[in-house]
Amino acid sequence: MDRSGERYRPKEVRNLPIRNVALHNGEPALYRRTILVFDRVVDDRDILTDANGLQLRILTPGVTRLEFAWSWPNEGTETTASR
Question: Is the pTM of this model over 0.90?
């Protein structure tokens, strides 16, 4: 089943406090960790059943769209890491 393009909203968003950090070049920067929590089961269906990846798009007014992607092998397939 291909559920490409389905959208889900997080059930919880937690913003941790802003803190000072140093970048790899020593420059100071401000950093905030945001935790997004999603339901795994929606409408009595595990939304990751048969999935081999997911894409997270973050859309915030006035900010460039951010995209992250994860993938994993399907069950029963051999991966280089497991050889």
Answer: no
